[in-house]
Structure formats: C-alpha cells, structure tokens
Amino acid sequence: MVSGEGAPRLRVEVEASRPGVPARRIAVTAPTAASTGTVLDVLGAHLGLVGAAGAVQARSLISGAWLDRSSPVGATGLLRGERLSLVVGLAPAESPRPLTRWSDWRTDTTAATDGRVAVNRPPRTAPPEPATSLPVPARNRVRRPRRFPLGAMLVPLLMGLVLGVVMRKWEFALFSLFSPVMVLWNHVEEKRAHQDEVAEFGRSYDNAVAATFDRVREAARAWADWTHRHHPPPAEVVEIGRTVGPRLWERVPGDPDFLHLRLGQATLRAPVTMREDLAGAAPSPDRPDYESAALVDDAPVHVDLRAAGQLAVRGPDGDIDRVADWLVAQLVTLHSPADVVIAGVLAEEPAREWWHWLPHLATDLLPCPPLAADRRAADALLEAVADLGAARRAARDSRRRTTGSGATLVVVVDDRLGPDPSLLRAVCDHVDEGICVVWLGRDARSVPTSAPFVLAVGKDGTHAELVDHDGGHRLDVAPDRIGHSTALDLSASLAPLRDAADARQARSLPERLSLEDLVPDLASPAAVRRRWESAPVNRLVARIGVSTDGPVELDLGPEGSHALVGGTTGAGKSELLQTMVASLAAEYPPSRVGFLLVDYKGGAAFKDAQRLPHCVGVVTDLDEHLTRRVLQALDAEIRRREELLAGAGARDLTELRSRIGEEAPEDLLIVVDEFATLAKEIPEFVEGVVDIAARGRSLGLRLVLATQRPAGVINDRIRANVGVRVALRLNDEADSHDVIGQPEAAHVPRTLPGRAYLKVHRHVTELQSAYVGGAATTGVTAAIQVHDLDPTAFVPAGRDEGGTTVLEAVVDATSKVARLGRWRAPHVPWLPALPAAVPAATLSARAPTAPLSAVLGLADLPRRQSQPVVTFDLARHQGLLVFGTSRSGKTTALRTLAAGLMEGAGPDRLQLYGLDFAGHGLHVLEGAPHCGGVVGPDDPGRVDRLLNRLGRLVDERKRAMASAGLTGFDDLERVSPTPVPRVVVLLDGYGGAAAALERLAGGRLMTKLERLVSDGPSVGVHFLITADRRAAVPSALVSVITTRLVLRMAEREEYALLGLDSSAVRAVRLAPGRGFIQGSTEVQVAVLATGDADDEHRALLAVAERARSRWPDRTPLLAAMPPSVGARELPDPVTPWVLPFAVGDTEVAPVALDLSDAHALVAGPPRSGRTTVLDGLAVAARRATSPVALARITARRRHEPEPLAWDVGPVDGHDGAEVTRALATISALVSQGRPVLCLVDDADALPDSTSSALADLARRGRDELVRVVVAADNRWAARAYGGVVPEVRKSKLGVLLAPEVELDGDLVGVRLRTPLERLGPPGRGYLVQHGVTELVQVAQFDDDGANDREGPSAAVGALGT
C-alpha cells in the first residue's frame, strides 16, 4: 500500500510579519525548486500585501540576512522557526545570502525538506555525584600513669623483717630492703616513659586532623566541580543552545543529573561524611569542625524533578515568569525531545511566544494543544494529562506498552490562569508515571499540598527560600533567571532541531496535507482526461495520504479488499472518505468506478462529492425502511452482475473486462459513514452489508465502512471480510484495538486531524491523510500553499479566505471531462428515493392511461431496480380502499384519481359523486361536468337522495342485465345502444360517514351505503373509500374491495392489521402521499401540481374547466332541497286529478297529489302553509288540459286577493244557506259531467252542520266526479270524530305540513320518520300517498299563475254567485 517517493517539497513553519501586522506562525509548503520570489509573493499575499507580486522582499530577524528571490527556496536555508519580516521593495539594501542559524552550520545544505536539522548526541560518560566518606581522626589513648606500687614495695620488706625475726637471720631483712629500691626505680622510669609517650601522641593527632581537613576541602572542591559541571549556570545553558554545542541534549534517562533543575546558588555542604572508626565511639566535644570545611559557597542548588515529581515556585509576577523560563530552558537545552516533552498552562503571552517554537512541545503525546492560554483550555489540558497518567498506570499494571511511554512529560501550571484544582490534583496523583509538575503562583495558600519542594522568590527577585517539606529544611537561595529576549533567542536556535536518534522525529509526518500534494494537476481537466485514458483496467488504487516512506495508496481493485475507517469526532474521518472518493474520481473514469454514498448523519459529509459524475446515489437519514431498500437494491445489483458474468461465461469481473472491455460493469464503491450508529439502531443492516461484502468482491462491489465508535460493531464476520483498516484518533485503546489491533490510535493528538494508522494484513503504517476541504490552488502558484498554524490568527481586512475547495475543483474538472461523452455514466443500482411530490402529468407522459383509468402514483421496486407508474383501472380494480391518518394524503389520492378519470372520459361514460366526511377536500369537484354533487354530514338529505339514486340505479342495471342474460357490466356496455356510464363514488372518511349515518334514520342510510359498496362494482358503480384506521371499515367491505393503498397510519399496529409485512414498515417514516399498495410495494401518490394545497385547488379547477370545454353535457345534479318553490316551476298536470303542487326530496323534482280515486287531507299548525297547498292545487287543476270546476269553502275570511276565479265560491262555511247553494251547484256540475275539486279551508273552524254536509259530499264523491281536499289544524284533526275530516282521513292521502313526526302520521295511517331535511321553511312537509311518504316543499302562488288559463264559464259563474 506504500508506493514510491513524491516530488521533493519543502514544508517549513515560520513566523512572518509585515509593517503594521503582528507576526503570525505560518506553514509554507512549496516545491524545493520553486523560486524564493514566488514563495514570498504567495506569503505576502497571505499577509495582506495585495498587488505586491514581484516586489516582496524578506529579511531574517534572526541572522539579518535578506532572502535571494531568484534562488530556489530549497537552497535558502529556510528552517523551522525562522522569523521573516516582509516588505515591499525592488531590491534589498544588502546583498542576499543564505540564511544561517548557527555560525558553524550551513543550513542550506544540512536542512531537511521539513526545515529541520538532525542533531546527533555523542555518547556521554556521566560520573555519579561524588560522595566522600572520611574517618574522623581519633586521639591515641595514652596509658594512664600507674599508681605508686606501695604494696609491691612493702610486702617484700615486711616478709624480710618477719624472716629476720623468726629465723634470726638479718641478712634476709637486709635483702628485702632492695625491693623498695627496685620499686621506686621502676616507678621513676615508668613516669618518664609516660611523659615521652604523651608528647609523641599529641604530635601525630594534630597531623591527622590537619590531613582530614585537607581531604574534606578536596572532596568539597570535587563535588563543587561536579555540580557546576552538571548544573551549568544560565549563561552557559543559553550558550549551549545558541551554538548547538556538543553538550546539547546531553542528559539521558539513567544519568545522575537527568531532570535535575538548577534553581540558583547558595552555600551548601558538600556530601562529605565523617565517620568514627571506633565502634560505638561518640564524637568528642572538642572534635574539630570539619563541616565548615565541607561548605561550598555559590554552589548550584538543584531539585531532582524526576524523584520529587513536583516543584512549586511562588513569588511576584515577572520574577516567577523569569524563573520559570530558566527552568524550561534547562529542560529543553539539556534534555532531548525524545526523552522529555513539555506542556504548559501559561497566563503570560511572552511565555507562550517562545514556547511555540520549542521542539519539546508534547504535540504528539496529548490529544489537545500542549499550550493553554485560558481557563477552558487549561482544564482540557490538565484532563488530558491526567488521562495520560491513568493510561500509563493501567498499561504498567497490565504490562503493556503505551505510545510515548518513554518520554517524561513536564507540565508547567500557572495558577494565575485559574485552573481547576481537582484536575491539578488528578495530574499530581500520576507523578510516578513519567509526569512531572512545575507549579507557578503568587499565593502561598494555593501551593499544591503534595508539592515536596517550594521555591519562594522574594519581592526583589534576588533572593529566595527553598523549602523541603519532606526533609523539613529551609535554604536561602540566590535564584537564577533568564530574560524574555534570551528565551526567544534560545527558542529560535532550538526550533529547527530534532534528535537524530529519535525515530519519531527522524521521519516526521506533516501536520497538514492536501490531495494536490499527492496528485499532480489534480483539478486540471486536461490532466484528468489523460489519467482517465490511461487508467489501468484491473487496478483500482486510491491515494489517500503520505507516510514516512512516501505516498500511501489503498488498493480497492480485484487484489484489494473492503476497508474499515474508524475515527472519533474531529479526527478527520469524513474528510478521509472525501479524499478517497476524490482521488479515485481524478484517476478513473465513471465507466470504471462508481460511488454509492451512504451517510447516516444527514448527507453533510458528501455534500460536494455527490455531484461527481461517478456518483450513482446518495443515501441520507436512513431508517429501517430505507435501509431495507438499500439492501434490496444492492442485492439486485449483485444478481444483475452475476447474470452478466454467467451470460459471458466469465469467472469474475476481471475476466469479463478482458472479454467485453468498457461494456463490463464498473467497480462500485459503497461508502457508508456512521456505520456503528446505523448498525446499533438498525441491526439487520450489519448482516446485510457483510453479506454484500462476502458475495460482491469478485463482482466489483467494494465496501468502505466508517464509524466513530467501533466497539461492539466490529464482529468476526466483518474482520474476516474487511482486510484494510484505517484508524484515526479514537477515544480509547479498546477502540484502537478493535480497528488495528494496537493502542496507538487512542494517543493521536487532537491537534492532528487526519493522522491515522493503516493496517493491511499485519503491517501497520502511520500516515497523514490528505485533505480536500482546503482552498484549491491555480495558476503559477498552484504548488505553493500557506496556512496559519494558529486558528485565531489575524486575517487582514479585505482578504478573501474562501474560494473553491480541492473537492469542488475535482468535481468541476471531472464533470467537464465527463461531458465530452467519451465515457459512459455508471449504472445506477440505487434509484433515487421517491420524491415527495410527483406530478400526475409527468407520470401520464411516461405511461399513457386508457379511458376509465387514471394515474395513481409512482411505485418503488428496489428488487427490480425500477420505479414504474401505478395506474388505477375501474374495470380491473373495481374499487379502492385508502387507509391513512390525518394529513397522510388520502384526499389527495381521491382527487388525483378523479382528475385522471375525468381527463380520459366524458360524462356520458363517467359520473362522479362525492361523499365528503373528512376535510371538505372534494367539493372542488362540483364544477366538473362529470360530478353530480358532493355532499357531506351537514346535508344528510342529499346524502339520502344520493344513496337512493344509486340504489335505484343498481337495481335498474341488475334487472336489465338479468333480463338480457348478461353476466357482467362489460357485456352491458357492449350491447347497450347508448353509452352506459360508470359511476364513481368518492367517499372520503368512512369512519366519519359511519358515525354520522348510523345516527340518522335508525342506521338506514348506513345499510344502504354498505349494500351499494357490495353490489355496485358488478353493475358499474365503484367506490373509492378512505379511512383513518382498519377498524373503521367493516370486514365485509374490506373483503369486497381488494385493492388497498395504505398511507401513514397513526399506530404501528395498524399496518399489521392491514396485512403489511412488518419488516417493510417497521420504523418507516412516510411523507404525505407515501404508502404501500397491494402489500409491501411502496408508492408515492401523484399530485396535480406541486402538492401545495392552493396549487392543487387551482389545478383541479383547471381540470374541471377543461372538462366543461370538452363536454357540454353533464351528469344530473344532486340538487339541494329548495327553501321555496314558485308555482311556475311546476309542470302542467297531465291528467285532471294528478296535480303538481310541490317539489319532493327524492329527486328534488316536482311531485303531484294523486286525487284519482281518493280525497286528501292537508294538516298542519297555523301558518304552516295549508292555504298555500290548496291554492297550489287549484292553480294546477286550472292548468290541466281538461280543467275541472273549482269550489272553495272556508271558515275564515281571506284578506289577500283570491289566486284565481272560482267556479263555486269562495263560500263562507258559517253561512248555512250559502253552503247549501254551493253544494247544490256542485251537484249540478257533477250531473253535467263536470269533475269538481272542492277545497275546504280551516275545517277545524266550520260549524258541525257544514262539516256534516261536506262529509256527505265526500262520501258521495268517491263514486262521482267530486274530490274533496280539506285543510285543518293537525292537532284538531287528530281529535275530530265527526264531520268531513274523519271522512277524508279514510283515504289515507294527504299533505302533513310541519308535522309532529311522532303523532301526525296517524292522520293518514302511516308512521313518519324523522326527516333528514330541515322542516323549518314554510310549506315544508310530507306528502303521503299510496302508503309512501316523501318530504316536499310546497310551491308558492304567484300572480301570473291564475291568468294563464281562462276563467270559469258563465254558467258556472252564475251558479257560483
């Protein structure tokens, strides 16, 4: 996976400034052969020197040398940390020369392409600290003088005297006298010898003491030399760093002075031990003061930081900063960055300024910036250090190696920044894990409790006190310090250095890398075309980054494998995927590789990549339903490729390409971002993609799975099928082990996005992945890149940081080349998801429909890789049930079908009716000529009339088909001489209809509706019904209408009740109009316009307008019951006794009172229209072709004019004589053969005699040509037991106005039902004849009604007067 070297390029970090602009840390990348002038022009433009190209000059603030614009930049000696001052001018005042950092170094020939210089540390012999042990000279123990031997002298004398006396030999006594002489002589001699011995011993002791003092002083001098040598003063340390002397980084772990920090100078006692050679001998009180001889003035005072772990320095501001700079200077000058790294919580900007360039910064060790300038960053840094300590302790306990475990981390914490004390305490708890802490502060109360050493700097900064809390000692110290400018010079000298023995720094990786650095002319259309034309047929290699050995390539071709990418947030995972896709797109044509991009986060990762000509689809915001769709589509693609291989007799895609060339399928790279989240939320996705990985490798399908959290997702099947693994920064070592089997990825610094580890088989390579989100470069400066190292760097006003990114440039270049037509587009296995709005006109153009059929929507069949148009055909499907919750698109489906049906057939072949029990969405159809009416729950009368009309139609067609021996409606259409229209009823809201209709007329309407739904389809009456839940529609109807469309339901359980596959709808999110038809086929219901309610309304009105212009005829309207009717609106009577007088609700058409063989009663309360009924009957009778004689008898005087000229009357019913004459006249007319219609008004007020006479007339009239119509109060009529009313009631014919429904039916022998129409308007009532009741609206009399016929004959008139 690691290929050859790239072109020589210089990448160096410098500090650049120009007049008026602060210095900024900038990384410059350029070919080593590029001219220095071109690089300076780009750098100047980055700093805001607009329009100064060709005149930008640069001077080193370190060496004072001017850069030669004409020389190659690689020969200028430009090193890391160089400080350049840019000005605009034609030529510098001094001659340019190569840059020098040190007097005896030629950096233009020794520097590497990263601006660093390798320093070799010669072997060092570090003697241990001298420790001398000297014996204390002891005085010789002189024998004490003996006492005079009196006994020895007297005893022999006494014995001689005794013998002389006893033995009488006085010679014995004389002889005994010699003993005292001898004793006395011996005593004198011994005393003289003792005196000589005392004198001799005194002289030897003095000599020994003097010699001991000399040895103590010599040991002190040796120790002083050693400590001065190993703890050099500031001037010497700075000189070592400035000159890169041989003592640079001389200390190594194991040396006695490793991590010794010199604090200052003091008078110290050399480590000389005075021992007493005599066991148990106590020092003599008069022993010489050897300790004073061991004191060393101006001796270096140091602290063994590695052993102590912590050092606290407190004192005034400024003083502690200089002391801290001195401590850090020792660390970075005397210790290699391979052994000691530093991090700092620094409150002062000057300290951070020189820290930035130190090669010892713990950039590679910590996952966050090693310098913290605010409290938030300080807490993050301390937390990272504590985590590092915990990881090292855990690794030590488990005997595992951790990344960077050999480097000691020294953390400088400035308490003035206010870091969290608990985090500082957590860091201090791990000082035994290669972590040391130097604390700085002003307040003694803030000193960490665990600090064993505290250096308290005095107010004047010239003296300090070192407190050893463990030993309980205090020492006055003259503290060492260095100035800020000295520290800056030191950092400038150390900035470009690296330890030649440090493998990590010897082959360091860039912190930032553009894909343009790896692929020459990446975004050039001409270069893209050349690469496409020469792209290898059997290799698919993506160049993704660079390692220490050169560019890194991923082999995704036949010899390669699937890939797994792991990386936490901010690690560069999505950027790596973009780089992979862009690299392949720039190298291979769309006919060679295609991309299917799956992003669970919402598509942001592939926002630009989806415009590549190679991209066959982008899948975002997956749920279980869409995941299932993805897997079905990929499974279909595998089957397609298997069929191609089988047809060509090829074993794999490589062999197929060798046979048919570019016609062979392209490789398909399936890139899945956020794989772990997707797998946890949709578990079956894991098995699906693993199966694809196992089956699709030889077929050219490649998987790239990317995840933030690999734990628990990377199972054995994935490991077995995914051979390439890339680990960017991960949260912990467990995640790192899951991806690459090593812990290194858990220790990638957070400041290095894109740093990764690539594992192929068992080989692991560290790399820096390329970035395609940066600005693309063009023109002569295309290969030169500059960017700020500090994200908060000042950007000059007016400078544009935007522009085309590298990825966008690749997209533009590849799109231009693809438009040449030389290469075919990749096959699209993943069709786009169904759109949220599908215009019906577009679908009709794709799949024209036959008459009496309509476009319903667009189906999605991922298993067949197709999206066919779904049509609804009345003859084939008969009916449709649409289920869905509120705002799911049910009404839209009905309106789309209605519009489609109206576009294909005229009113002579199609009639529409609407039952709108939902949201009044169907009323807009009423303007179409096909629509007979749309009714809803607010007009139950019209609902009843519609159901009655349809019921009669069904019965008529059944009889017609039965009489003709036909078996189906198609046969009836074929044999009928005139078109027989199909009737379509749109019922929107079956649940609402059932709730409303079951309460009306005892459920009679609901029964009618269910019967029509069941019986209608066989005779051409079709129902398209919507419902919000399965339980809303009876099972009997569900079994009749087998075509079902299921939209979004309110409850998941509803899908199962409707027979849908649970796996197809689990966790599905259905947009309005999205649903399933005939099981699990997903469909998007078509719309007439855009889906917007107003647009849809206007579109439907336009459909109705086009229909009216095409077909002038229209379906009979389902009219509403009028509140009033004029007499002229009624037809003339056909026969004398069948008299039109009102409009009935059955068809909202005129109805007549049939008096052919019966009398009639008109009953109702006052002002209900009884007199109007009588007037209407009179006017109708006068209009008859064979007019009848009209007689009027009333009990009350009429104030308004009579409606016409009566043949008899009007007669006052209270005038008996007048009544007698009128009855005689009527008898005379009858005898002449003239039929007579006698109208009796206000019968409840007639005298009994008149009523009885009229009753006789009514009894005779049944056999004669006399018909009596009596108007009376309904309540009075119910109580009347004699007279004309009971006689007339026997006919069971009449008109009941404003009736009391429960009572008034008895007047005519029927039982009235509660009316569905409102009984409020005057003249509204029931017509009851032949046992049938019908709601009627009585016609109002107008003046013209009486003048359209001739008046009565003279004879009749004479008789009536």
From TrEMBL:
The keyword Cell wall biogenesis/degradation does not apply. This is FtsK domain-containing protein. The lineage of its organism: Bacteria, Bacillati, Actinomycetota, Actinomycetes, Propionibacteriales. SMART domains: AAA. Keywords: ATP-binding, Membrane, Nucleotide-binding, Transmembrane, Transmembrane helix. One of its GO terms (molecular function) is ATP binding. Residues 110-136, 1342-1361 are annotated as: Disordered. It comes from Nocardioides ganghwensis. ATP binds at residues 567-574, 884-891. Signal peptide: none annotated. The keyword Cytoplasm does not apply. InterPro entries: AAA+_ATPase, FtsK/SpoIIIE/SftA, FtsK_dom, P-loop_NTPase. Residues 549-737, 866-1056 form the FtsK domain. SUPFAM superfamilies: P-loop containing nucleoside triphosphate hydrolases (SSF52540). The chain crosses the membrane at residues 148-167.
